[in-house]
Amino acid sequence: MPATEHLTAVGAGMIEMSLGYGGYWSGVMPVGDIETGLPFGWRNSAEAASFFYNFGFLDLLRAAYAEHNVYYIGPILDGPYCFMSRDPISSLDDMKRMTARIAGPSADVLAEVGVSTTYIPAGELYLAVSTGVVDAFALGSPVTYNEMKLYEVAKYLINPPIVDPLVCNLLINMDVWNALPDDLKVIIEQVSLANNERNNAYWQIENSYAIDKMTTENGVSSMTLPPEDVLKLTEASFGVWDEFAAKDATYAGPAVKMLKDFVKLMGHIN
Fold first, then answer.
1. Fewer CB atoms near the end CB (10 Å): N or C, the chain?
2. Homologous superfamily, domain 81-163+222-232
3. Which regions of the chain are under pLDDT 50?
4. What is the pLDDT of residue 196?
């Protein structure tokens, strides 16, 4: 079935479990967008895992999903959401001279700092970059860019990632979950944690391999924005996050406050 229907299907018992993505059903559950990763929030897998498991975000999500008759077993940490460009980008001023293909809240953040953005379907991106319709883009991880051979038309990988990592989820029908004995519940949650560690290790290795291949074989260079520009992007992100918080006072609002406090605690902003 379409991935966008997993929440409804799991809640109704049409399927018992799902590997899902909260952003697909943010229209009925706004906190799903926050769950997947807001731009310039957590900065690596360790931070993401800590935010979910040590700072209360997992409990908040379980309460939100329970309203849809779904038990949120845990997050699945995926790959980073990275930026590539045709020309060098060493500062926000460079980005402001470009048109970037990007979507969702990340596009809103770039627009806040004066970058021109547009949306182009993934299948049309190679042609759009090669012909200069767009100068830069964010679509996925280095693995994605390597597989799509986007290194042929874009030679610069920009750090830091906009989101690192994106987050999927493991869901189960609440009635099925409640029918399980406690020992099996513990096993499932522990296996979810172990899977996260393996999945994270997989993505780190695969992305490192993709970056190395693009760099050594295809002439791609990695560039890093200066700290003061990353701070400007983070400050702009806070305003965009507020728009998500306003969509739902019960879960999205507290989630955004939680994330702001976390980012400040991690020292990414004062």
1. C
2. Periplasmic binding protein-like II (3.40.190.10)
3. none
4. 86
Q: Which residues contact 14 (CB under 8 A, 6 or more apart)?
A: 1, 8
Q: Where are the domains of the chain?
A: 3-77+165-218, 81-163+222-232
User: Which residue reads 């500062």 in tokens?
Assistant: 91
Please give the model's pTM, rounded to 2 decimal places.
0.93
Q: Which pLDDT does position 1 carry in this prediction?
A: 86
Shortest CA distance to 146 belongs to which of 208, 189, 93, 191?
208
**Could you check whether 3-77+165-218 and 81-163+222-232 share the same CATH topology?**
yes
Q: Taking phi first (over 0 means left), then psi (-120 to 50 degrees means alpha), and beta for anything else, what does residue 214 get?
A: alpha
Pair of tokens at residue 159:
């750090």
User: Computed over its alpha carbons, how large is the radius of gyration of the chain?
Assistant: 19
pLDDT at 126: 97
Query: Cβ neighbours of residue 155 under 8 Å, at least 6 residues apart?
Result: 85, 86, 219, 220, 221
Domain covering 3-77+165-218 assigned CATH 3.40.50.1820 in the classification = no
Kindly list the distances between the CA atom of residue 173 and the CA atoms of 13, 69, 101, 126, in Å, as whole numbers in the listed order.
Answer: 6, 6, 37, 40
In order, the DSSP letters of 41-101 are S--SHHHHHHHHHHSSHHHHHHHHHHTTTEEEEEEEE---EEEEESS---SHHHHHTSEEE
* Interatomic CA distance for residues 233 and 221, integer angstroms: 22
Backbone torsions φ then ψ of 26, nearest 5 degrees:
-65, -15
pLDDT of the residue at 104:
87
Say which amino acid occupies 187: I
Listed in sequence order, the DSSP H helices in the chain are 6-12, 31-36, 45-54, 57-66, 92-96, 104-112, 125-130, 142-147, 174-179, 182-218, 227-245, 252-265
Relative orientation angle of helices 252-265 and 57-66, to the nearest 10 degrees: 170
Sign of CA dihedral 228, 229, 234, 237: positive
